[in-house]
Amino acid sequence: MTDRSDRFSDRLLELEQKHTTATLRERYRRAVEAMLLQPLTPALTLLHAGVALAGLVGAGVCASLVVGEPDTLPPLSRAMLTLCAAFGASWSLWAAGVLRRGAVHRRRDRAAAARMAFGFTLVALLMLAALAAASPGPSALVMLVVALAMLVTAAVVMLSHAIEQAELRGREQVLAVELGLAELTEVLRLQGRARD
Questions:
Q1: Cα 157 to chain center, whole Å?
Q2: For 185-189, what is the mean pLDDT?
Q3: Can you tell me the distance from the alpha carbon of 184 to that of 186, in angstroms, rounded to the nearest whole number?
Q4: What is the CA 63 to chain-centroid distance, rounded?
Q5: How far apart are CA 18 and CA 108, in angstroms?
Q6: Are 9 and 172 a contacting pair, CB within 8 Å?
Q7: What is the pLDDT of residue 162?
Q8: CB–CB of 127/77 below 8 Å?
Q9: 67: Cβ contacts below 8 Å, ≥ 6 apart
Q10: Average pLDDT, the chain
């Protein structure tokens, strides 16, 4: 799914470069950047460091189980552990990237996090369903309930992200209207000076 707001932003910037002053362009660029970049506070830094560390530890534990377990480990269980190792490594890399930049990009970083959460959860749900089908019993029902709860949580994360992106697009369009008004005011002011 492509983000139409990026194309809209590109068109606005192109129009802006043709018809606005450098001061207005810089003001708009700073306003959009301030809206999209959320600098890391100490609490957010700690949170992202915790995510990076937890992802790394989880990936290491799961990878060591995949490598160290005997060949009697069922292939589906091995695949599930491999998925969990990839999941932990991806979260660790994502959080490390945010920490390196010192800011969360509200469009790119949060979109990546929401897609990772939903995608990995969906695949994990399918694998848990296959594991439950392979070993029916009371534990299978518990696995399916836990997997369904994880899927609902991931869907809520995706929905929250979609709502936030719609809000950001709306705010970006308001900034574009403000820029247009500032440009019109500048043109009218210059025309008024030319008449005087």
A1: 10
A2: 72
A3: 5
A4: 25
A5: 27
A6: yes
A7: 82
A8: no
A9: none
A10: 80
Q: Which of 99, 95, 139 is nearest to 117 (CA)?
A: 95
- Encode pLDDT of 23-39 as tens digits: 776 777 777 777 778 88
Give the pLDDT mean for 168-192. Answer: 75
Residue type (1 letter), 112: A
Q: At what angle do helices 75-101 and 42-68 cross, to 10 degrees?
A: 150
* Inter-helix orientation angle 138-195/108-134, to 10°: 170
In the numeric block, which tokens belong to residue 22?
């450098």
Radius of gyration of the chain from Cα atoms?
A: 24
The predicted pLDDT at position 11 comes to: 63
Q: Are 65 and 81 in contact (CB under 8 A)?
A: yes
Which candidate, 52, 60, 62, 114, places its Cα nearest to that of 83? 62
Query: Does the pLDDT at position 13 exceed 80?
Result: no
20: exposed, middle or buried (Cβ count in 10 Å: 0-12, 13-18, 19+): buried
154 and 118 in contact (C-beta within 8 Å)?
yes
Measured distance CA(58)–CA(56) in Å, rounded:
5
43, two tokens: 């609490």
